[in-house]
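To assess whether ligand presence alters the predicted conformation, the chain was also submitted together with FE2/S2 (inorganic) cluster. Input:
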Amino acid sequence: MDILVQPLNRVIRATPGANLLDALRAAQIPMSYSCLSGRCGICRCRVLDGEVLDGGREQQRPLDGMDGAVLACQTYVTEACTIEVPAPEEAVVHRARVARASVVAIEPLAADIRRLLLKVANPIAFSPGQYAQIALTPQHSRPYCMANLPGDDLLEFHVQLMPKGRVSSYIAEQLKVGDKVKVSGPLGAAYLRQQNAGPMLCVAGGTGLAPVLSVVRGAVAAGMRNPIHLYLGLRSPRDLYGLAWLDHLRSTHPALKVHVVMASGADPATQRRGLVTQAIEQDHTHLRGWSAYLCGSPPMVETTTLLALGKGMEAAHIHAEAFYMQGD
Ligand SMILES: Cc1cc2nc3c(=O)[nH]c(=O)nc-3n(C[C@H](O)[C@H](O)[C@H](O)COP(=O)(O)OP(=O)(O)OC[C@H]3O[C@@H](n4cnc5c(N)ncnc54)[C@H](O)[C@@H]3O)c2cc1C
Ligand code: FES
């Protein structure tokens, strides 16, 4: 006998044991999906009522703070249930795939940051803010976020060189122009929501600027008029890069305000001293009706998420990509 599954305000039928994402797609409920393997987190939804068989946690980050959150592609329906799906008008589907690419440039952006440009033989469709897994060799593979826009000729990544970091050191010391690499993606759920007309809080820690640039570039390209407050949090002037790109964006989108916040060594004429959370705390009494894009180190993403929630932002409007270290 079929099971009744209620997504949105509809009731759909599914056979016991059916995959939740398959059931939603079969009923033409708009759902984002990409990897179909529990890696990218984009098919996240909530079980409000009833039990499901949760076949797997997100591998890269926890299902942070969302009660009843499951990945639809890893979930099987076992009894009648009510499901909350993310805003259907914002669903994106770019089927993740593996593409061959060649290295076009490796350029310094700051003392310990490199810009990596790749030419993909068969371009990958993605939404601004997403990331890809880059395999430089079978032993050197890590996720990095696109800084460019979909449809651009080259994929652009900003890589922070970590002390003794295996893959970032390989990029700095061994990777050469012309080398062949593999790019798998797109992945990630912190992509630009174009339907949201409210103010946007974009917070980048270090190379978190890459996805934030893509999001802001995407908003400008889409003709969005939302006020945007972009906070760039850095440890010191040594990490500063991207100001020319930000100036250009400001000239095309006057409602963009850029705040460079440095833990130490800030130039008081143009920069602020401290942490991004302190700057946001000072600038905004509330964030009700705002949406957020938070990208960079996990502690920065976590503290900014808590701050945004405390100031009234809805959890569903907080889109975060924390750069968790992978190991091996
Ligand atoms: C979704 C996602 C998107 C990302 N996007 C970006 C991006 O756009 N730009 C970017 O720069 N990064 C990004 N990252 C981070 C990136 O994937 C790598 O984690 C980062 O480049 C470090 O990799 P690595 O191999 O150089 O360092 P690793 O070898 O993984 O080491 C990381 C750090 O840990 C230290 N370490 C390693 N092993 C040990 C140990 N046993 N004990 C103590 N310390 C140790 C190393 O010294 C190093 O400092 C992203 C991560 C995720 C999950
Ligand atoms: S499509 Fe479900 S986690 Fe990627």
